[in-house]
Amino acid sequence: MKNSRFDATVLTLGFAFLYIPIIILVIYSFNASRLVTVWGGFSFVWYQQMWSNQGLMDAAWVTARVAVISATIATVLGTLAALTLVRFRKIPGRFLFSGMIYAPLVMPEVITGLSLLLLFVSLNVDRGFWTVIIAHTTFSMCYVAIVVQSRLLTFDRSLEEAALDLGCPPVKTFFHITLPLILPAVLAGWMLAFTLSLDDLVIASFNTGPGATTLPIKIYSQVRLGVTPEINAICTILIGLVALGVIAASIATKRNEVRRQRDEHAAAAG
C-alpha cells in the first residue's frame, strides 16, 4: 500500500513538472495584458494579432509544407526499409543496414544536423527549403520503419501466399493485400514523422537557408528578444497540432492491434 502511494506521488509530481508549465503557457495565451506574467483578463486579441503577423504566418506555412512533404517521403522510405528488414533476412549487409536505420534514434540531434550540414557544404548545395526536407526525412524515416516493422512481424503471410497461389502478381498482392492490412501502422508512422518534423528546431537550424525559416526557428529567435503574447498564442496552436498528431497515431496503432487480434482469432476459428 505504501509503495503504491509512493509511486502515485512520484508519478503525479513528474506529470506536474512536465505539464504545468505547458498549461500556464496555454492559459496566458488568452491573456488580455501585453505583459505575459500579469493576468489582465480573458481575450482572443493575441490570436488576432498572431494571424496578422506576416513573419509568423510565413514560418508556419513553411513548417506545414516541410512537415507534410518530409513525412510522406519518410513514410515511403521507412515502409520499404521495414519490408526489407522483415522479409529479406539473409541479404548481405543486413546488420549494417539495420544499424543505419536505427542510428538516428540514438544519435544526438546536434550531430545529425551538423553532419548533414557538412554533407550539403561538401556537395556545394545551397541550403534552403529542400535541404530542410532532406534533413527531416533522414531522421524521421527510422521512426516510420520501426512502427511498420512491428506490424509486419505479426503479419499473417498466409493471406499473401493465398493471393500468389491464385495468380496475383507480387506487386498487385502488395497493394491489394499487404498494404491495406498494414495501413494503420503506415498512417501511424506518417503522423509520428509529421509531428517530429513539426516541432524540430536543432536539425532544421543547421540546414535551413533564406526563405526556409520554420516556425520553431522563428519562435526561438523571437523568444531570445523576450516572450510576447503572440508567441504564447502560436505555441498553443503548435501544442494542439502536436497533441492531435500523437492522439491520431495512438488511435491508429490501437486499431491496428485490435484488427490484428481479430484476424488471429478468425484464423484460429477457421
UniProtKB/TrEMBL annotation:
This is ABC transporter permease subunit. It is found in: Cell membrane. It comes from Endobacterium cereale. The chain crosses the membrane at residues 12-30, 59-83, 95-123, 129-153, 174-196, 231-252. Residues 60-252 form the ABC transmembrane type-1 domain. GO terms for biological process: transmembrane transport. Pfam families: BPD_transp_1 (PF00528). Belongs to the binding-protein-dependent transport system permease family. CysTW subfamily. The keyword Transmembrane applies. Its main location: membrane. PROSITE patterns: ABC_TM1. GO terms for cellular component: plasma membrane. It is a multi-pass membrane protein. Keywords: Cell membrane, Membrane, Transmembrane, Transmembrane helix, Transport. Coiled coil: none annotated.
